[in-house]
Design goal:
The complex is a heterodimer of chains A (about 850) and B (about 325).
Chain A lengths: L9 H14 L6 H10 L3 H14 L4 H13 L3 H13 L6 H13 L3 H17 L6 H14 L5 H16 L4 H13 L3 H14 L4 H13 L4 H12 L4 H13 L3 H14 L4 H14 L2 H14 L6 H11 L3 H14 L4 H13 L3 H14 L4 H13 L3 E5 L2 E5 L4 H23 L7 E6 L2 H9 L8 E3 L3 E5 L11 H17 L6 H15 L9 H8 L9 H6 L4 H35 L4 H9 L3 H22 L10 H15 L2 H14 L9 H12 L2 H14 L4 H13 L3 H11 L7 H13 L3 H13 L5 H14 L3 H14 L4 H11 L8
Parallel strand pairs in A: 2-3, 3-5
Antiparallel strand pairs in A: 1-2, 4-5
Helix pairs in contact in A: 1-2, 2-3, 2-4, 3-4, 4-5, 5-6, 6-7, 6-8, 7-8, 8-9, 8-10, 9-10, 10-11, 10-12, 11-12, 12-13, 12-14, 13-14, 14-15, 14-16, 15-16, 16-17, 16-18, 18-19, 18-20, 19-20, 20-21, 21-22, 22-24, 23-25, 25-26, 26-29, 29-30, 32-33, 33-34, 34-35, 35-36, 36-37, 37-38, 38-39, ...
Chain B lengths: L2 H18 L8 E7 L5 H20 L8 E5 L11 E2 L2 H14 L5 E7 L2 E4 L2 E4 L6 E2 H9 L5 E6 L6 H6 L4 E5 L12 H7 L16 H18 L9 E3 L20 H4 L15 H22 L6 H27 L1
Helix pairs in contact in B: 1-9, 2-6, 3-4, 6-7, 9-10
The chains are: A mainly alpha (about 850), B alpha/beta (about 325).
């Protein structure tokens, strides 16, 4: 490919200049016009102009090349090859770019042998004497190496070297810079790629290909800006097929299948045989469940581009993005079957096998992928993760297998399994459906590992994920913004396991997330999100999407805050659906998704509401539910404070000043205005402090009970509440609160010790053993005492052999530990016959 | 053999056993506690509290002779005992010179620095009112203490370089931080002092807190405190007692080698003594107990040579013997 000469003003200016050249005597040259039209993406015009020029001068190699490029751009591959061949016969210079372009076209139509031979020869030209090659030739040689890199990864390094050589030959060479950037991006080095794309755009702001590259870079970063940038690329060159393909891909990712089909149609209007466009057309058919159309398109791709390697890889990627992991495995298997040396296909196979829980096979595929392409960051990260995962330990109870860090597994297992069993039993009954097989629950103390487990890369901003039979979670010990109830996260992810199974993995994000939050809320008091002032402010300011557009907030959020709001909003919409149509309505929607129905169809069927009616009904539902809070958060007059913040602030200030009566009056008023608010220093919290100062323990307990009933993430409130219960002598209530606090902080040694002491005093020895075992597992600083107390609990439970082992552990640390020495003698005594 | 002879032999054997435990047999124990300059009220109060708490523990629980305790603080007027002097550099050096003068080889000398520190290039300092105390000055003073068991604890920020500068055979050096770059106010000192109050730090339940146990207790408490506050740990304490100049973050992990061996045997509290008039049987039991503990420690050092069940079997055998010994000693004591 030759360098494009972009002029300021984009397509219009280029075309105008070309037309001017035609119509101005003395300047009109059909071959120049053809080139201008080609550069402007006016392929049909370029073909016509080139033909016209060839009538006048059929020996113009340059014009034959223009004709070839224009034909290639419109998908007329054999005709393009003919034209390229003529250009070569006529002595086109430089030759190598034409030869490489031809080889790439031959690959596309399945003529692999001659194509690869030609590409290798192009690389050899560089190796033989790079010093004499011009920048355009070097870029072509680099492109050849890049294509060969798919099979021989060393070629990628060579391609980088060749592109760099081109840039040292001609530092402002845009194509060299773009090609290098594209290769770096392909290998996940987006930071450097982005710099290169920006450099090109600074020099050539109307370079459509550079704009497209920039959009790809944003897409790599999951940035919404990609949508806008690809649109700019299309404005610069409306016939840029790869830009339409990227646009279609972005639309597929936001589940806008109609829009994606339109974009694909635009691409195919330019190049009816574009393999990537046809692949995305097939992907849309797949996602819509249109099997026949899908098969027809695959057959068409096989026919027009039998050498296009990425069709099943793209389908595997899209299937995985849509949580259809088993399908992704099958697409990846198909990709490997077509090309056993497609390392990306092996990588996709490995990554998706991991998601379906087939760890051993995943490892094999990833090892193969890594051997072939050690530059694939996802593969490298995931193999590193698997190495660390090998050191994890597993515990199994019934259908659940817990895989966790050895330091955490024995603390988490006794807490996690009952929650998982409870979730399973309750949701099986609620949905009338039970997913098949076992469930693997992986818990990661390093958030980076969890992130790699989820997407193969670090940096994901979620806490849990369900792949169906595999659930992965951040450990409570991982770095979080603040305390959170990890058991509710587990419950949420198990809910997804049900939704995915019941809908055959076709449930949309908004429905599954909203329903999972509702399941949390149904599970325990205080679980699931609650109304925040910022959510209500967003609602009042009409910043929340309409119910019918809720999925966009998940797939294309405008801000991180909008994602948080979307979960809560979706849960409220689910509650409205359930209020009106019962759980049967929810079940009907899940099975409807399985059968390929759309959300709009299902809502019309289940609620009898069309889109507009649904939006109106949901708006009314929110106003009914939060009218009081909205009024409390709305200023009565411009410049006046809203009633809730006013009363809350007054109460806080009075409390700080020690005026408890005035503080109480204001805080009670604030609590009445917005009782659902339990954020930091809420009126409930401040009232608890106030009552504590007065010594009114019962009232302080009531205030904190109100907090934890709404927000089960509040560790501090749980701790305060437990202390108050114990101070009031209500051991049972205190114990229950401490037990609940373990679902926020299971690694709090003092909580386990407190529960152990309570269990021991009540001779509940099994419970005592579990708590004392946790203290040992958590690495209590006083190891001797921790082992001794576990031994004593085991002895209490009649497990003398285990007690003996533990007391030896205590005495190994502290041989002169009198109580432990006595216990050793006691557990060695034979059990009286009567006690056997 | 008469009972008296048996008693004398028993006492001799006990003395030998205790002597084998090296520093525990120190004739005299000396303590120099220095509270540095606080710089602001919060730290002024904190360092004063840590310093005076250590003195209280030394005098009231650890059995130090009052004349062997020197205390230097930023504000001596606040000392309720009226024994503190201002912690100016010359006073600190004078206190160390006085200890060097009065102590003898075999004695234990503990120097505890509680405050802030700074490290600027080669200059490594403990901050005092007036001129700071450079590590070289402290090192020079310590040379006069050769032959004593010396323990130096610098609980200040940026104290890490004290390890290399003060390390020597027969010396325990503990610092609150691992490097001069760890220059935020350190929490280590308070937890280290706290280790000697109550029994929480007495990991081996022998009734005394060794310097190794105090170090382990303090580092664990520091780590827990940072985790509780969800802060990145910015102080990593070191202990060196093998004279190699390189401190360990986890000394004593392998009891046979490396740092921790001397600190394990070094106690601020005096060795428990049997009351006057203890019976010969009681003394014999104590000697036997000490022997059993030594055998257990020896077995632990050879743990890798055995299969797990063999090791546990041998350990249990010794422990049962020890348990019966302790039961007998209690019964003997109640007679």
């Amino acid at each position: 490919m030759r360098p494009r000469h972009h002029r300021a003003g984009g397509v219009a200016a280029v075309v105008a200049a070309a037309l001017l050249a035609v119509t101005t005597p003395g300047h009109a040259r059909a071959d120049e016009m053809a080139r201008s039209l080609l550069d402007a993406g006016q392929y049909v015009g370029a073909i016509a102009a080139a033909r016209g020029a060839l009538v006048e001068d059929s020996a113009s190699a340059a014009t034959w090349r223009v004709l070839a490029e224009a034909r290639a751009a419109t998908g007329a591959i054999p005709a393009a090859l003919d034209a390229y061949a003529r250009a070569l016969e006529l002595g086109i210079a430089p030759r190598l770019p034409v030869e490489v372009a031809m080889a790439k076209l031959r690959l596309r139509i399945g003529e692999e042998g001659p194509a690869l031979e030609r590409l290798r020869a192009a690389v050899d030209v560089y190796r033989a004497d790079s010093g004499v090659l011009d920048a355009e030739t070097l870029v072509a040689a680099g492109d050849a190496a890049r294509v060969l890199g798919r099979r021989d990864v060393a070629m990628y390094t060579l391609a980088v070297r060749i592109y760099e050589a081109a840039l040292s030959r001609e530092p402002r060479h845009a194509d060299a810079r773009l090609a290098l950037g594209e290769l770096l991006l392909e290998k996940s080095n987006n930071a450097e790629a982005l710099d290169l794309f920006r450099e090109v755009l600074e020099a050539e702001p109307t370079n459509a290909r550079a704009m497209l590259a920039l959009a790809r870079s944003h897409h790599f970063d999951h940035s919404d800006v990609a949508v806008e940038v690809v649109q700019r690329a299309l404005e610069l060159q409306p016939t840029l097929v790869p830009a339409w393909v990227l646009r279609a891909r972005l639309l597929i990712e936001t589940e806008d299948y109609d829009g994606a089909e339109t974009a694909v149609a635009q691409a195919l209007a330019v190049d009816p045989t574009s393999p990537p466009a046809l692949t995305l057309a097939a992907a849309v058919r797949y996602l819509r469940g249109e099997r026949r159309g899908f098969d027809r398109l695959l057959a068409e791709i096989r026919h027009v581009a039998p050498g296009f390697p990425a069709v099943y890889e793209t389908l595997a990627e899209i299937a995985a993005q849509n949580r259809r992991y088993q399908d992704a495995v099958e697409f990846a298997i198909a990709a490997v079957a077509i090309d056993r040396e497609s390392w990306r296909a092996h990588a996709l196979l490995g990554l998706n096998r991991l998601r379906t829980g087939d760890i051993a096979a995943a490892r094999r595929s990833l090892d193969t992928a890594f051997r072939g392409d050690p530059y694939d960051v996802q593969v490298k990260n995931t193999l590193d993760l698997l190495d660390r995962l090998a050191a994890f330990e597993t515990r199994t109870a019934g259908r659940f297998t817990l895989v966790a860090d050895p330091r955490e597994v024995d603390v988490l297992a006794p807490l996690l399994f009952p929650v998982a069993e409870d979730a399973w039993a309750r949701m099986s009954e609620r949905y009338g459906h039970e997913p098949r097989g076992s469930v693997r629950i992986e818990v990661y103390p390093r958030h980076e590992d969890f992130s790699v487990r989820t997407v193969g890369l670090v940096g994901i901003d979620i806490l849990g994920v369900s792949f169906g039979p595999v659930v992965a979670l951040d450990s409570p010990s991982a770095e979080h913004a603040g305390p959170l109830n990890w058991a509710s996260v587990l419950w949420h992810e198990l809910a997804h396991t049900f939704h995915l199974s019941m809908s055959w993995y076709r449930v949309p994000r908004w429905f599954s997330e909203g329903l999972a939050v509702v399941e949390e809320r149904r599970a325990r008091p205080g679980w699931g999100q609650d109304a925040s002032p910022r959510f209500l402010e967003a609602f009042a300011a009409h910043r929340l999407p309409a119910a019918s557009r809720l999925n966009d907030a998940f797939l294309r959020p405008e801000s991180p805050e909008q994602v948080g709001h979307a979960y809560y909003q979706a849960s409220l919409l689910i509650e409205m659906i359930e209020d009106r149509a019962g759980v049967e309505g929810l079940r009907a929607m899940l099975t409807g998704y399985r059968n390929g129905r759309t959300t709009n169809e299902l809502l019309t069927e289940v609620l009898g509401l069309d889109t507009a009616a649904l939006d109106a009904a949901f708006d009314g539902y929110l106003r009914d539910r939060y009218g009081h809070a909205l009024a409390a958060l709305t200023a009565p007059e411009e410049g006046e404070p809203a009633p809730f913040p006013k009363a809350w602030r007054e109460g806080g200030e009075a409390l700080e000043a020690g005026d408890l009566d005035r503080a109480e009056a204001a805080l009670v008023r604030a609590r009445e205005l917005f009782p659902e608010y339990v954020g930091p220093d809420s009126p409930h919290h401040l009232l608890a402090t106030l009552h504590e100062r007065r010594g009114d323990t019962a009232a302080a307990i009531a205030a904190l009970e109100a907090v934890v009933a709404i927000n089960a993430d509040d560790l501090d409130a749980h701790r305060r509440l437990a202390a108050l219960h114990f101070a009031a002598g209500d051991t049972q209530a205190g114990r229950e609160v401490v037990e609940r606090s373990l679902l926020i902080d299971p690694f709090a040694i003092d909580s386990h010790e407190r529960l152990a002491a309570l269990a021991e005093s009540a001779a509940r020895w099994e419970d005592a053993v579990a708590r004392r075992a946790a203290v040992v597992a958590l690495g209590a600083p006083d190891r001797a005492e921790a082992h001794y107390r576990l031994a004593a609990a085991l002895a209490g439970a009649g497990q003398n052999e285990d007690a003996r082992r533990e007391v030896l552990s205590a005495l190994e640390v502290a041989p002169l530990y009198d109580e432990a020495l006595e216990l050793l003698l006691r557990v060695r005594e034979p059990t009286p016959a009567s006690a056997r | 053999m008469s009972a008296i002879v048996r008693l004398r032999r028993g006492l001799t054997a006990l003395g030998l056993a205790l002597a084998l435990a090296a520093p525990a047999a120190a004739e005299e124990r000396f303590l120099v506690v220095v509270g540095g300059i606080g710089g602001e009220d919060y730290y002024r109060d904190l360092f004063h509290r840590w310093t005076t708490t250590m003195v209280d523990l030394a005098l009231e629980q650890l059995g130090f002779a009052p004349e062997n305790v020197a205390v230097l603080v930023e504000q001596p007027a606040r000392d309720r005992r009226g024994i503190a002097r201002e912690s100016r550099r010359e006073a600190v050096e004078a206190a160390l010179a006085d200890v060097a003068e009065r102590s003898r080889p075999g004695d234990l000398v503990m120097v505890l620095l509680l405050g802030h520190g700074t490290a600027r290039g080669e200059r490594v300092l403990f901050n005092l009112p007036g001129p700071d105390l450079p590590v070289e000055a402290l090192a020079a003073r310590l040379t006069a203490l050769d032959g004593r068991t010396v323990a130096v604890v610098n609980a200040a920020s940026a104290s890490g370089p004290f390890v290399a500068a003060l390390s020597a055979p027969g010396r325990v050096v503990i610092t609150a931080t691992a490097s001069p770059a760890e220059d935020h106010a350190a929490q280590f000192g308070g937890h280290f002092v706290g280790a000697f109050a109550g029994g929480a730090a007495d990991a081996d339940k022998d009734g005394r807190v060794s310097l190794l146990e105090a170090f382990a207790h303090a580092t664990a408490a520091v780590r827990a405190s940072y985790e509780r506050e969800r802060r990145l740990l910015t102080e990593h304490a070191l202990l060196d007692d093998d004279g190699d100049g390189a401190g360990s973050r986890e000394p004593g992990v392998d009891p046979a080698t490396g740092d921790g061996a001397l600190a394990r045997r070094t106690f601020l509290a005096a060795a428990p003594a049997l009351g006057e008039g203890a019976s010969a049987e009681r003394v014999a039991l104590e000697v036997a107990a000490r022997g059993l503990v030594d055998r257990i420690e020896a077995l632990k050092r050879r743990k890798r040579e055995f299969t797990e069940s063999d090791y546990l079997g041998r350990l249990e055998g010794l422990l049962v013997e020890l348990a019966l010994n302790r039961r007998a000693a209690r019964e003997e004591g109640t007679r």
